[in-house]
Write a structure and sequence with these properties.
Elements: E1 26-30, E2 34-41, E3 43-45, E4 51-53, E5 56-57, E6 63-66, E7 72-74, E8 89-93, E9 96-102, E10 105-120, E11 123-135, H1 138-142, H2 146-165, E12 169-171, H3 181-189, H4 239-243, E13 254-265, E14 268-278, E15 302-310, E16 313-321, E17 328-329, E18 341-342, H5 346-364, E19 368-372, H6 378-393, E20 400-404, H7 407-410, H8 419-425, H9 427-433, E21 436-439, H10 446-455, E22 465-466, E23 486-489, H11 493-499, E24 521-522, E25 532-533, E26 536-539, E27 544-548, H12 554-574, H13 588-609, H14 617-622, H15 627-646, H16 648-659, H17 667-675, H18 679-683
Parallel strand pairs: 3-24, 16-27, 19-20, 19-27
Antiparallel strand pairs: 1-2, 1-8, 2-5, 2-6, 3-4, 6-7, 9-10, 10-11, 11-12, 11-23, 12-13, 13-14, 14-15, 15-16, 16-21, 17-18, 21-26, 22-25
Helix pairs in contact: 2-16, 12-13
Length: 684
C-alpha cells in the first residue's frame, strides 16, 4: 500500500457504504402467483424500557416477485392497500441468498438460520447455518420426470453442501467482509475514490465501483456496491436482485474462516481474530484446479487477515496465499503423487504469469515478497525453477522480493524450530511492511491517547460518526403452509463428525462474542457523545507476503502463522499492551488461543481445497510435533487420496454451480448426470 506512513483522516458524518445496508429481518408472503418480500423495522425502546417506536413494515421497500414470469419489482405505495389480501401464508427469513435457475425454473434461496460468530468494531458477523429453496413454479417442479426430479434434488443438495455443509460462509449486515480492513478504511475516508491516494483500489477489475467515475449518489450507496467481486461468493446468485436495484436485499457472503475472541493480557482487554477469504476466480479442488488460468487467476487464492483491538485502536496485517502462477496441472490418476504437467505454449505461460503479478500489484501495492516453500528436488524443483525463470526474465511493473525456503528439508528430523531461519531472513521486510493501524473510537487510557497523538499528523479532532447498530433477530422457523419449500439444515451426522476436527480454543470470550441475544426490540437508546466513533488512519501496511507451497495448505499455513506471531507482538507492543521485551509465549492462555486460531484456519482452508484438515496441524496447535500428530497426518493423507480420486469431481461441479459456471440444461451436464445416477450418494 502506498499511503504515507502516518496520516490523519477526518471522519465524515455519513460513511458512504452505510446508507443502505441489507435488511436483517424480512416477512415472506406467498400464494400461487406471487411472492412478497417485506422488510421489517423492529420496535425500539429506551434505556428505561419505554417504547419509542413500534415494529412496522418498511413500506418503501416491499418487493413483488411474479412466480409465472420471474419479474421482480418494488411495489408502489398506492398498491399497498390490497397487497396482502390474497396471500395465503407468511414466514420470517433472515435474508436473501440469491436466485438460481435449475431444471424446473427459478428458485429463490433464503436464509433461515445463522450462527453468531462475534463482532468486529460493533459489526456483528454470522455464519450461514440453514437455507431454503423456494421454487417460483412449484407446478413445473412436480411435472419433472422421476429422473429429472432426482437431478433437481441433487443440484439443491450440491448447493446446500457448499453453502451450509462446508460451514465456511460468513456475512455481516453492516460490514463488507469481502474487503480488507485497510480498504474499508479507504472507503470510510474517501481515498477509495482518489487514485493518487489509494493505488490499492484504482482500476481494480473486481470491485463494483469504478473509481474513475463520479461517486455514487446517496441512493446508490449500498453494501454490495463496495464488495470485492473476487471474494463475493453469491455474486452470481444475486444478479437478478442487482438488476432490479434491490440493494437492501443483497448480502455479500465470503467463503473461508472467521473466528474472534476477547481475552485479557496484562489486565488489559483485547479482542483477537482471524478472517480468511477464499477467492472465486479459480476456485476448485486440489487436483482439479492447479496453477493459473490465462487471466492470471490462481488456484486456492486466499487472503488471511489477522487483527487485534484494544482501547479504541484496531490493528491488522494481511497475507495472501495462492498456487504458483504458471499454467500447470496435476490431475488425479490413482497415483499417490500425480505427474505435474506444464502448458507448452511459452507465450501463454508468460501472459498468465504477468497477468497474475499485475493483479497482485494492482490490488496490494508495489512491495511484494514471495515466499516459496517448495522442495528443491523432484517435481517441485522443476516447478520452482520455472517460477524463478519467469520472475527473472518477464518485465514486471515493480520489482518482486523472492525467497525460496525448502520447508521439508530445513525442518527435517522434527526441527520445526528452524522455521525461525526464514523469519530471521525476512525480519527486515516484516519491519518495513508493518501493519494497518487505526483509531475507531475514543481511547480511554493515556497510553493509547499518546500513541494517537504521536502518529497523527494533525491535531484536528475528527467529527463524530454515529455508531452502527446491527439488531439481532429471532430465528423463527418459516410457516409450514408455504407451498413446496425445500429447506436444508447443517445439522447432519457428517457435519457433527467434521466439527470435532476443529477444536475450540481454551478461552472464554465475553458474552457479546459468544451469544447473539435474539430480541424483537432494539434496546439501544438514542446516541450519547460516548457512543460516537471516530476514524483516524494512523499507519498503513506498506507491503505484502505472498506465501506458497504446492497445495498452499500445510506448509503455507505454518509459515503464515509464524509471520502472524511476529506481527501480532509488534502490534501489542505499539498499543502498550506488551512491554518491549515481552512475547506471546509468556502468556500461556493467549498463546494457546493464537495457536488454536491459526490451526483452525489451516484446517478450514485445507478442508475446502484438499478435503481434510491441514497436515502438521499439531505443530500449529501446540508448538511441537507429536506421535499422535504424525498418525493424524497419515490418516489425513489417505483421506485426501480417496477424496481427490473419487469425490472431488462432483465437489468441483458444486462450486461451479454456485459461481454460475455450470449449465444444468447443457448436453454435457445431462450426459454426465445420466452416466452417474448415483452421484448424490458418491459425494454426500
Amino acid at each position: 500500500w502506498d499511503h504515507s506512513t502516518t496520516c490523519l483522516v477526518n471522519a465524515t458524518p455519513s460513511p458512504p457504504y452505510l446508507h443502505h445496508m441489507p435488511f436483517n429481518e424480512i416477512e415472506l408472503y406467498d400464494n400461487k402467483s406471487s411472492i412478497l418480500l417485506v422488510p421489517m423495522h423492529k420496535s425500539k425502546i429506551n434505556a428505561d424500557g419505554k417504547l419509542i417506536e413500534a415494529a412496522h413494515h418498511d413500506d418503501a421497500n416491499i418487493v413483488h416477485i411474479d412466480r409465472r414470469t420471474g419479474h421482480i419489482q418494488k411495489v408502489p405505495p398506492k398498491q399497498h392497500a390490497t397487497l396482502f389480501d390474497s396471500m395465503k401464508s407468511m414466514s420470517r427469513i433472515l435474508g436473501v441468498l440469491g436466485m438460481i435457475r435449475l431444471l424446473s425454473g427459478t428458485f429463490l434461496i433464503v436464509i433461515l438460520k445463522r450462527d453468531y460468530v462475534g463482532s468486529i468494531k460493533k459489526h456483528k458477523v454470522y455464519r450461514l447455518a440453514q437455507i431454503q429453496f423456494i421454487p417460483l413454479l412449484p407446478s413445473a417442479f412436480r411435472k419433472l420426470s422421476d429422473k429429472d426430479r432426482e437431478r433437481e434434488f441433487t443440484y439443491m443438495e450440491m448447493l446446500n453442501k457448499v453453502f451450509v455443509g462446508d460451514r465456511a460462509h460468513f456475512f455481516s449486515y453492516t460490514c463488507d467482509l469481502t474487503q480488507t480492513f485497510q480498504r474499508q478504511s479507504d472507503i470510510l475516508d474517501g481515498s477509495f475514490f482518489n487514485p493518487t491516494n489509494s493505488p490499492m483500489a484504482q482500476n481494480d477489475p473486481f470491485t463494483n465501483i469504478d473509481p474513475k467515475k463520479p461517486k455514487p449518489t446517496v441512493n446508490e450507496h449500498s453494501l454490495w456496491r463496495y464488495a470485492h467481486e473476487r471474494f463475493f461468493w453469491n455474486h452470481h446468485l444475486t444478479s437478478p436482485l442487482r438488476d432490479a436495484d434491490l440493494n437492501g436485499f443483497i448480502i455479500p457472503l465470503i467463503r473461508g474462516y472467521v473466528e474472534l475472541i476477547v481475552d485479557t493480557l496484562n489486565k488489559k482487554k483485547v479482542k483477537f481474530g482471524l478472517i480468511s477469504r477464499v477467492g472465486t476466480k479459480r476456485s476448485g479442488t486440489r487436483y482439479n484446479t492447479r496453477g493459473a488460468d490465462l487471466h492470471g487467476n490462481v488456484a486456492n487464492f486466499v487472503e488471511t487477515e489477522q487483527f487485534i483491538l484494544h482501547d479504541g485502536l484496531f490493528a491488522c496485517h494481511l497475507q495472501i496465499r495462492g498456487s504458483i502462477p504458471l499454467i500447470w496441472s496435476q490431475y488425479a490418476n490413482l497415483k499417490y503423487t500425480p505427474e505435474i504437467k506444464f502448458h507448452k505454449d511459452k507465450k501463454k505461460q508468460t501472459t498468465s504469469f504477468k497477468a497474475h503479478m499485475d493483479s497482485v500489484f494492482q490490488s496490494y501495492g508495489n512491495n511484494i515478497s514471495i515466499v516459496n516453500l517448495c522442495k528443491k528436488k523432484g517435481q517441485e524443483l522443476i516447478l520452482s525453477r520455472y517460477y524463478e525463470t519467469l520472475l527473472k526474465n518477464v518485465p514486471l511493473e515493480h520489482k518482486v522480493d523472492y525467497h525460496a525456503f525448502d520447508f521439508h528439508s530445513e525442518t527435517k528430523g522434527l526441527r520445526m524450530d528452524r522455521i525461525s531461519l526464514l523469519i530471521d531472513e525476512m525480519k527486515e521486510k516484516v519491519q518495513q511492511y508493518a501493519f494497518h493501524l487505526e483509531q475507531y473510537k475514543p481511547c480511554k487510557t493515556s497510553a493509547s491517547k499518546q500513541l494517537v497523538a504521536k502518529l497523527s499528523l494533525s491535531p484536528d479532532t475528527p467529527s463524530a460518526l454515529p455508531k452502527v447498530v446491527s439488531d439481532s433477530i429471532p430465528s423463527t422457523p418459516p410457516h409450514q403452509e408455504v407451498d413446496l419449500l425445500l429447506d436444508f439444515s447443517a445439522n447432519q451426522d457428517e457435519e457433527k463428525k467434521e466439527e470435532k476436527n476443529f477444536e475450540t480454543p481454551p478461552a472464554t470470550p465475553i458474552t457479546s462474542d459468544t451469544s447473539d441475544p435474539e430480541s424483537n426490540t432494539d434496546k439501544n437508546s438514542p446516541s450519547s457523545p460516548s457512543e460516537y466513533t471516530v476514524h483516524r488512519t494512523l499507519q498503513e501496511q506498506k507491503g505484502l507476503f505472498r506465501v506458497n507451497c504446492v497445495d498452499c495448505c500445510d506448509r503455507t499455513n505454518v509459515v503464515e502463522t509464524a509471520f502472524g506471531r511476529v506481527l501480532l507482538e509488534q502490534q501489542l507492543k505499539m498499543m502498550g499492551v506488551f512491554s518491549p521485551h515481552e512475547s506471546i509465549i509468556h502468556h500461556e492462555k493467549f498463546n494457546k488461543i493464537f495457536q488454536h486460531f491459526w490451526a483452525n484456519n489451516g484446517d478450514r482452508i485445507s478442508s475446502l481445497y484438499a478435503g481434510t484438515g491441514a497436515l502438521m496441524g499439531d505443530f500449529t496447535r501446540t508448538g511441537q510435533r507429536s506421535v499422535v500428530g504424525f498418525m493424524k497426518d497419515g490418516v489425513n493423507a489417505v483421506s485426501r487420496y480417496v477424496q481427490n480420486n473419487f469425490k472431488d469431481q462432483v465437489k468441483q461441479r458444486s462450486l461451479h454451480l454456485v459461481l454460475g459456471l455450470l449449465d444444468v440444461n447443457g448436453e454435457e451436464e445431462r450426459n454426465l448426470m445420466t452416466e452417474n445416477s448415483n452421484v448424490l450418494g458418491s459425494v454426500f
